[in-house]
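Because discrete structure vocabularies remain unfamiliar, it helps to consider an illustrative case, giving the amino acid sequence and backbone structure tokens:
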Amino acid sequence: SGERPWKCCDLQTCTKSIPAFCRCRDLLEQCSDACKECGKVRDSDPPRYICQDVYRGIPAPMCHEHQ
């Protein structure tokens, strides 16, 4: 499965399978080095990016705790 392309993710969707297949829809200032497919969000100003990789493994923790 390799390295998770994001250390944490707030907008994460994962399948119910084991291992899970996860995507992260967080808007990033830049993608991590581990992210292979980085897509620029159209019309974003300042520019924002989404890592379009699908990660197979343990879901990432959330970046921000919801108060």
